[in-house]
Amino acid sequence: MDEKNKPGTEPAPVDENKIIAERRAKLAKLRQAGGAYPNDFTRSDLAARLDEKWGETETEALDKQQVAATISGRLMLKRVMGKASFGVLQDHSGRIQIYVSDDHSGKAGHAAYKHWDIGDIVGVTGFLFRTRTGELTVRAHDIRLLTKALRPLPEKFHGLADQELRYRQRYLDLLVNERSRWVFAVRSRVVQAIRGYMSRTNYLEVETPMLQPIPGGAVARPFRTHHNALDMPLFLRIAPELYLKRLVVGGMEKVYEINRSFRNEGISTRHNPEFTMMEVYCAYTNHTYMIALMEELVRHAAKHALGTTQVDYQGRALDFGKRFAQLTMPQAIQKHAPEHWSEAQLRDREFLAAKLQGLGVEFGDEQGWGALQLMLFEALAEKHLVEPTFILDFPAEVSPLARRKDGDPEVTERFELFIDAKEIANGFSELNDPEDQAERFLHQARKKDAGDQEAMYYDADYIRALEYGLPPTSGAGLGIDRLVMLLTDSPSIRDVILFPHMRPEA
């Protein structure tokens, strides 16, 4: 046995530059012959469709019917054997084997095929047959090189393990990782499911500005840019909320937008500065209606995208088919506190401050009990919310756009949906009192003046819109990226975003 072929011996490193040079030389010959990058081949069949229709047909029946097929795709496997060769083409539906020979493809066509490379894009016209091993195959009567691939696929082109390379060169990831193609097919079906549901329930899909003079609708740090023609600063939107509620004022009583939003914040497995969410608003409803809608949308998206409401996420079984749990924020804290704490204690700033200090959580002197209660919830309870759970009764201090709760103005009619300790949705009965909203904007503006870069701006036009009258309304935002993470068992948000932001290559 040769030394290089001993089991466990590492293969010699591939000289990619040499391979690229060889492929460029082949391309040069194609150019000289006038055959580089043709654009007159028309595909009529897909690999998966041929298998669905003819995969179970008996060999004799297949031969008798003389089923013609015209396919194209990327050459993923190639085996040359004298007067006959095999290959595997991959299109967006799947893979199918091809058979190339002197007898059926012509000596010139077969000879040309022998010099093609893995990764080349090929067109084939021929007839279906079944090999001795029973594999459905296209016998090539005409075969053409449609695109010359100058770079080789990864050595183990059945998979790409380098995570950073997968994110940075998503095109390569999609080429060689079937799972990645499946993940983004699921993502597409999730969005389709949401659109279909909203359309059937008479919601109107709208579009609002991505470039905004005042970023509003969330507590977040925005990206800044500049409009040269108007000579004015603009911001990438952090949420479409205030524009959508302007539409409700204008009489568009059921609206939604599947939107890209941007927040100039950290990157983690569950945060990306550019993300997709669905925001929805419905007049003459309150937060209880919106809770039911979010639950139904999550259930419907899972059923439509996966065919089931039973989901396994990172080793945990999640059931979207049963009724989602509901807890108030104090109840969630009490459930996971090391000892019994009363609701009165959970509104006592001094008590909350002592507990946060004991947990090593930093907070500011300017923050009231509402902000500290939220911090305590995040520190103690949030990580335990694995099964779908709505958290209710957020403090007004941390909910500047939500309606105060009748009989208890220090909290709001706001909820968040958590699944696997991830916030999936956030919604509330909308604040439609223009004077209360103006006061809350002023409070946010004072926080911004004090250095809080995530605090909201004062939006005078939005206050003017409220002064014309916003009917009782509820609204919510549903995180598409995080929902797709759950449905595809993806540990990182980057796994479900086609082109996540990366540092520049060295």
Fold topology:
Blueprint (H helix, E strand, L loop, with lengths): L15 H17 L14 H8 L4 H7 L2 E14 L2 E8 L2 E8 H4 L1 H8 L6 E10 L5 E12 L15 H6 L1 H7 L1 H23 L3 E2 L5 E2 L11 E4 L4 E5 L4 H9 L4 E9 L11 E10 L3 H20 L3 E4 L2 E4 L5 E4 H8 L12 H11 L9 H12 L8 E4 L11 E2 L2 E5 L1 E6 L2 E8 L4 H16 L10 H9 L4 E7 H9 L18
Parallel strand pairs: 3-5, 6-10, 14-15
Antiparallel strand pairs: 1-2, 1-4, 2-3, 4-5, 7-9, 8-9, 10-11, 11-20, 12-13, 15-18, 16-17, 18-19, 19-20
Strand content: 25-35%
Chain-averaged pLDDT: 94
What is the number of helical segments per DSSP (H or I, 4+ residues)?
A: 16
Q: End-to-end distance, in Å?
A: 42 Å
Largest sheet: 8 strands, mixed
Q: Name the structural class.
A: alpha+beta
Order of adjacent strands in the largest pleated sheet: 6-10-11-20-19-18-15-14
The tally of strands reads 20
Helix residue percentage: 25-40%
Ranges with pLDDT <50 over ≥5 residues? 1-9
What is the gist of this entry?
The chain has 506 residues and is α+β, with helices and mostly antiparallel strands. The protein is 34% helix and 25% strand. The strands form five sheets. Strands 6-10-11-20-19-18-15-14 form an eight-stranded mixed sheet, with helices on both faces. It has a five-stranded mixed beta barrel with strand order 1-2-3-5-4.
Description:
- The chain is α+β, with helices and mostly antiparallel strands and 506 residues long.
- Helix 8 crosses helix 16.
- The relative contact order is 0.09.
- It has an eight-stranded mixed beta sheet, with helices on both faces. A five-stranded mixed beta barrel has the order 1-2-3-5-4.
